[in-house]
């Protein structure tokens, strides 16, 4: 797995705060990727080099209240994050962008694509949460309680470190987990995390059928965040008319544990968007 250091952090001014991002630059097709909740844009560190080397302009942004973004926002809804995607695409002035989402940010990518296909060339959804979760209420309440108290950061970091990476882990996994833990200790970070986690993705579920741009769904077959990860991936891909990539043995972060499956999926989506 090849990595390159993050480019310099830049900031996009939005109502209520700034969204942090980086940009590899260049004149290639624009890709904008966002991580899941409780994570940073560094989650794409293992695909950055290959994507940039292939001639793309690869931009990664932090979610509101996470990573290097401000935790001063009043709005942490999927619709707000979709607006961040679109604002960043406009700000880069590099033509329509391929939007890459992971987990929660996939819902925002769907909404953005449905609303502004002129700014979005395609979407790649990695382990997507784009519909209300088919998870028992007791389990949802247990997860919310785990994040609610002073123990919330430790609970998330432990879950992230082990459960969400059930198979092979990136060689720098411990370093990235330590960075996530440190980030969430910052003022307002856990509050923002809880606000992001409260999204039920009902809006993106309503907009799935309205997406007209090319789409790819990538799901790890061992992803523990779904009762049946493969069935969920197939269902979402069918609604979108998307290509489906099943990453055998991968968990909730295929860009981290199986970048060799994710890079071709992203490049394939980019080619489809360019040709359409």
Summarize the structure.
The protein is of the alpha/beta class and 276 residues long. Helix content is 43%, strand content 16%. The protein has one domain: Rossmann fold, CATH 3.40.50.1820.
Structure description:
The protein has 276 residues and is of the alpha/beta class. It has a single domain (10-275), classed as Alpha/Beta hydrolase fold, catalytic domain (Rossmann fold, 3-Layer(aba) Sandwich), CATH 3.40.50.1820. It is built from eleven helices and eight strands. The protein has helices at residues 45-53, 78-92, 105-115, 137-148, 152-163, 173-184, 189-197, 202-207, 229-240, 254-257, 259-275, and strands at residues 10-14, 17-23, 30-33, 57-61, 97-102, 120-126, 215-220, 243-247. A hairpin with a 2-residue loop joins strand 1 and strand 2. Helix 4 packs across helix 5 (152-163). The relative contact order is 0.16.
Q: Spans of 5+ residues with little confidence (pLDDT < 50)?
A: none
Q: Termini, distance in Å?
A: 31 Å
Broad CATH class: Alpha Beta
Provide a count of the helices: 11
- State the secondary-structure class: alpha/beta
Features:
single chain, Rossmann fold, eight-stranded mixed beta sheet, 11 helices, 8 strands, 43% helix
What secondary-structure arrangement, pairings included, does this model have?
Layout lengths: L9 E5 L2 E7 L6 E4 L11 H9 L3 E5 L16 H15 L4 E6 L2 H11 L4 E7 L10 H12 L3 H12 L9 H12 L4 H9 L4 H6 L7 E6 L8 H12 L2 E5 L6 H4 L1 H17 L1
């Amino acid at each position: 797995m090849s990595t390159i250091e993050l480019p310099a952090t830049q900031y996009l001014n939005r109502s209520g705060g700034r969204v942090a991002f980086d940009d590899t630059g260049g004149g290639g097709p624009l890709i904008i990727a966002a991580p899941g909740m409780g994570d940073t844009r560094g989650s794409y560190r293992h695909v950055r080099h290959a994507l940039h080397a292939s001639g793309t302009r690869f931009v990664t942004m932090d979610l509101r209240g996470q990573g290097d973004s401000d935790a001063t926002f009043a709005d942490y809804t999927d619709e707000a994050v979709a607006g961040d995607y679109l604002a960043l695409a406009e700000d880069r002035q590099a033509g329509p962008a391929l939007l890459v989402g992971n987990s929660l940010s996939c819902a925002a990518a769907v909404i953005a694509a449905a609303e502004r296909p002129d700014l979005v060339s395609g979407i790649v959804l990695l382990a997507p949460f784009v519909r209300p979760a088919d998870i028992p209420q007791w389990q949802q309440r247990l997860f919310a309680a785990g994040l609610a108290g002073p123990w919330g950061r430790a609970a998330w970091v432990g879950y992230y470190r082990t459960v969400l990476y059930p198979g092979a882990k990136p060689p720098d996994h411990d370093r990235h987990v330590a960075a996530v833990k440190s980030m969430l200790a910052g003022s307002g970070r856990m509050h923002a995390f809880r606000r992001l986690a409260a999204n039920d993705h009902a809006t993106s579920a309503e907009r799935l059928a309205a997406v007209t741009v090319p789409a790819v769904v990538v799901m790890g077959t061992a992803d523990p965040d779904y009762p049946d990860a493969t069935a969920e991936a197939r269902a979402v891909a069918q609604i979108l008319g998307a290509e489906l990539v099943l990453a055998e043995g991968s968990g909730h972060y295929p860009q981290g544990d199986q970048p060799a499956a994710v890079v071709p999926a992203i490049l394939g989506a980019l080619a489809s968007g360019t040709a359409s």
